[in-house]
TrEMBL record:
Belongs to the TerC family. It is found in: Membrane. It comes from Methyloceanibacter methanicus. This is Tellurium resistance protein TerC. It holds the Pfam family TerC.
Length: 339
């Protein structure tokens, strides 16, 4: 057996190598080619790259389908779509964080880029722990399933309040132990400035750095939903990790593409709630029916139908009169000017 055929978590090393090479190339292009310098066109470039990153993620799923088989391909696509849909909540919270700190779109790319780098590492750690738990204790899957059902039902109930950034415990902790500049220092995370009490030159962190840390924490919280969801779809570690990472790689571009219109997708959240309930329930259904595994074709079909239904119904119910849209844009511009 050649070295490249060595199995790593059940998958040949050469497949992991192809995946990592694509990720490195995408990150290098993002940082080195498209955003070498901050520019006002940066957010437009990012939003226009959203279809590109989604296409790469889907193309990788097609490759998995060919080389690992239809079942793995369907499981990858299901996991990719579920993670993308869960990302809509991430986008909403990211928008709140940027608004709270008054971070202009000019500098948001820097926060999201380095934030996503951290997310890739954190997701790898969490997925590794999840894979070990599932392999060592199969009953953990049932806990994941119950967690998904509970989360889905909770999302369907009224009273889901908007997150309060000001009273966030992590923010309070950072304010207590870190020197934070009152205003941005362009796109820098750290600056050397005089201490307000002693006058000595010390290191300060900027609101840009604080925003990045909060985004990392938000992702860890959201991983409590997404990781059980993907393991309820498949226990193939390669499929779990690659579908998650490709969905995350496109999160920055998706943010710039959808941040301004995220409020239009009001019925996507109930659709996502039903997806979580479905994914959690199918583990118990498979056991009751005596199946070794719930059919991947059914999982993919139901997921696609619910996501498409949520998006289309949202767009239909939130059709706006052009005059109203222009009026709202002016109000938003006024708010932005006050930051």
């Amino acid at each position: 057996m050649e070295f490249t055929d060595t199995l790593v978590m059940g998958t040949p090393l050469w497949m992991w190598g192809i995946f990592m090479a694509i990720v490195v190339i995408l990150l290098a292009l993002d940082l080195g080619l498209f955003h070498r310098r901050p520019a006002r066109s940066g957010s437009r470039k990012a939003s226009s790259s959203a279809p590109f990153t989604i296409t790469i993620g889907l193309a990788f799923g097609a490759w998995v389908w060919v080389y690992a088989g239809p079942t793995s391909g369907k499981e990858y696509l299901t996991g990719f779509l579920v993670e993308k849909t869960l990302s809509m909540d991430n986008i909403f919270v990211m928008s709140l964080i940027f608004t709270y700190f008054g971070i202009p779109r000019l500098y948001q790319h820097r926060v999201l880029f380095y934030g996503i780098l951290g997310v890739i590492v954190l997701r790898g750690i969490v997925i590794g722990i999840g894979a070990w738990l599932v392999a060592s204790f199969h009953w953990v899957l049932y806990i994941f399933a119950l967690l998904l059902i509970f989360t889905g039902i909770k999302m369907l109930l009224p009273g889901d309040d908007e997150p309060d950034i000001k009273d966030n415990p992590a923010l309070k902790l950072m304010r207590r132990f870190l020197r934070i500049t009152p205003k941005l220092r362009e796109q820098r995370f750290f600056v050397r400035e005089p201490d307000t009490k002693t006058g000595a030159i010390v290191t300060w962190v900027t609101p840009l750095f604080v925003a990045m840390i909060l985004i990392e924490i938000v992702d860890v919280i959201f991983a409590l939903d997404s990781i059980p969801a993907i393991f309820a779809i498949t226990t193939d570690t390669f499929v779990v990790y690659t579908s998650n990472i490709f969905a995350i790689l496109g999160l920055r571009a998706l943010y710039f593409a959808l941040a301004a219109v995220i409020d239009r997708f009001v019925y996507l959240k109930p659709a996502l709630a039903m997806i979580l309930v479905f994914i959690g329930s199918k583990i118990f259904v498979a056991d009751l029916a005596g199946w070794e595994k719930f059919p991947s074709t059914v999982s993919l079909s139901v997921t696609v139908a619910l996501i498409a239904g949520g998006i289309l119904y949202s767009l239909w119910r939130t059709q706006r009169d052009p005059a109203d849209t222009q009026r709202d844009d002016k109000v938003q511009d006024a708010k932005t000017g006050d930051l």
